[in-house]
Design a protein that fits this description.
130 residues, 66% helix, 0% strand
Length: 130
Protein backbone atom coordinates (compact mmCIF):
# COMPACT_ATOMS: atom_id res chain seq x y z
CA UNK A 1 0.00 0.00 0.00
CA UNK A 2 2.83 2.46 0.82
CA UNK A 3 4.42 1.63 -2.52
CA UNK A 4 1.28 2.79 -4.31
CA UNK A 5 1.13 6.01 -2.27
CA UNK A 6 4.77 6.81 -3.00
CA UNK A 7 4.19 6.20 -6.68
CA UNK A 8 1.16 8.49 -6.68
CA UNK A 9 3.04 11.23 -4.83
CA UNK A 10 5.94 11.01 -7.25
CA UNK A 11 3.62 11.08 -10.25
CA UNK A 12 1.83 14.16 -8.88
CA UNK A 13 5.17 15.88 -8.17
CA UNK A 14 6.45 15.19 -11.68
CA UNK A 15 3.18 16.39 -13.21
CA UNK A 16 3.38 19.55 -11.08
CA UNK A 17 6.92 20.28 -12.20
CA UNK A 18 5.95 19.76 -15.85
CA UNK A 19 2.91 22.04 -15.52
CA UNK A 20 5.00 24.71 -13.79
CA UNK A 21 7.58 24.51 -16.58
CA UNK A 22 4.91 24.82 -19.26
CA UNK A 23 3.33 27.76 -17.45
CA UNK A 24 6.69 29.51 -17.16
CA UNK A 25 7.42 28.88 -20.84
CA UNK A 26 4.02 30.27 -21.77
CA UNK A 27 4.62 33.39 -19.69
CA UNK A 28 7.95 33.98 -21.42
CA UNK A 29 6.22 34.47 -24.78
CA UNK A 30 5.37 38.05 -25.72
CA UNK A 31 1.72 38.98 -25.33
CA UNK A 32 -0.26 38.70 -28.52
CA UNK A 33 -1.41 42.01 -29.92
CA UNK A 34 -5.11 42.77 -29.74
CA UNK A 35 -5.22 43.81 -33.38
CA UNK A 36 -2.94 43.02 -36.28
CA UNK A 37 -0.84 45.97 -37.43
CA UNK A 38 2.33 46.59 -39.38
CA UNK A 39 4.09 47.61 -36.14
CA UNK A 40 2.99 44.43 -34.35
CA UNK A 41 4.00 42.34 -37.35
CA UNK A 42 7.42 44.04 -37.39
CA UNK A 43 7.87 43.36 -33.66
CA UNK A 44 6.97 39.73 -34.24
CA UNK A 45 9.53 39.54 -37.06
CA UNK A 46 12.30 41.04 -34.91
CA UNK A 47 11.46 38.60 -32.11
CA UNK A 48 11.48 35.64 -34.52
CA UNK A 49 14.84 36.70 -35.96
CA UNK A 50 16.36 37.17 -32.50
CA UNK A 51 15.19 33.70 -31.46
CA UNK A 52 16.17 32.08 -34.80
CA UNK A 53 12.60 30.87 -35.34
CA UNK A 54 11.43 29.78 -38.78
CA UNK A 55 7.95 31.19 -39.40
CA UNK A 56 5.90 28.89 -41.63
CA UNK A 57 2.45 30.48 -41.33
CA UNK A 58 0.99 33.94 -40.92
CA UNK A 59 1.24 34.87 -37.22
CA UNK A 60 -1.64 36.58 -35.40
CA UNK A 61 0.35 39.83 -35.36
CA UNK A 62 0.24 39.86 -39.17
CA UNK A 63 -3.17 38.29 -39.79
CA UNK A 64 -5.40 40.42 -41.97
CA UNK A 65 -2.60 42.58 -43.36
CA UNK A 66 -2.09 42.85 -47.10
CA UNK A 67 0.85 41.10 -48.71
CA UNK A 68 2.51 44.50 -49.20
CA UNK A 69 2.08 45.36 -45.51
CA UNK A 70 3.56 42.02 -44.43
CA UNK A 71 6.45 42.48 -46.86
CA UNK A 72 7.07 45.96 -45.45
CA UNK A 73 7.00 44.60 -41.87
CA UNK A 74 9.45 41.82 -42.77
CA UNK A 75 11.73 44.31 -44.52
CA UNK A 76 11.60 46.62 -41.49
CA UNK A 77 12.42 43.74 -39.14
CA UNK A 78 15.36 42.65 -41.29
CA UNK A 79 16.65 46.23 -41.47
CA UNK A 80 16.29 46.66 -37.70
CA UNK A 81 18.30 43.48 -37.10
CA UNK A 82 20.92 44.39 -39.71
CA UNK A 83 21.55 47.79 -38.15
CA UNK A 84 21.65 46.24 -34.67
CA UNK A 85 24.41 47.02 -32.20
CA UNK A 86 27.16 47.54 -34.77
CA UNK A 87 24.98 49.24 -37.38
CA UNK A 88 25.99 52.78 -36.51
CA UNK A 89 29.65 51.83 -36.68
CA UNK A 90 29.19 50.37 -40.17
CA UNK A 91 27.19 53.41 -41.26
CA UNK A 92 29.94 55.72 -39.99
CA UNK A 93 32.60 53.69 -41.83
CA UNK A 94 30.62 53.93 -45.07
CA UNK A 95 30.09 57.65 -44.58
CA UNK A 96 33.79 58.30 -43.98
CA UNK A 97 34.60 56.32 -47.12
CA UNK A 98 32.17 58.50 -49.09
CA UNK A 99 33.72 61.65 -47.61
CA UNK A 100 37.20 60.45 -48.69
CA UNK A 101 35.95 59.88 -52.22
CA UNK A 102 34.39 63.34 -52.25
CA UNK A 103 37.70 64.90 -51.17
CA UNK A 104 39.54 62.99 -53.92
CA UNK A 105 37.33 64.63 -56.57
CA UNK A 106 38.83 67.99 -55.60
CA UNK A 107 35.51 69.65 -56.50
CA UNK A 108 34.50 72.24 -53.91
CA UNK A 109 31.16 73.16 -55.48
CA UNK A 110 28.95 74.75 -52.81
CA UNK A 111 31.59 73.96 -50.16
CA UNK A 112 31.40 70.18 -50.62
CA UNK A 113 35.08 69.59 -49.78
CA UNK A 114 34.91 71.69 -46.62
CA UNK A 115 31.84 69.79 -45.46
CA UNK A 116 33.35 66.39 -46.29
CA UNK A 117 36.53 67.22 -44.36
CA UNK A 118 34.49 68.45 -41.39
CA UNK A 119 32.39 65.25 -41.26
CA UNK A 120 35.48 63.08 -41.61
CA UNK A 121 36.66 64.60 -38.32
CA UNK A 122 33.31 64.56 -36.50
CA UNK A 123 30.17 62.62 -37.47
CA UNK A 124 27.08 64.45 -38.65
CA UNK A 125 24.59 65.07 -35.86
CA UNK A 126 21.10 66.20 -36.83
CA UNK A 127 19.84 69.29 -35.04
CA UNK A 128 16.83 68.79 -32.73
CA UNK A 129 13.59 69.49 -34.54
CA UNK A 130 14.94 68.60 -38.00
Amino acid sequence: MTLRRNYGVRACAVAGVILAGLAAAGCAQPARPRQASVAACTEFGVSAIERHVTVTSVPAACAGLTRAQVNFAVSSALHAMAVGAHGKVRQRERAVNEYRQAVQTNDNTQGALDEARRYMQKPFEPQPGN
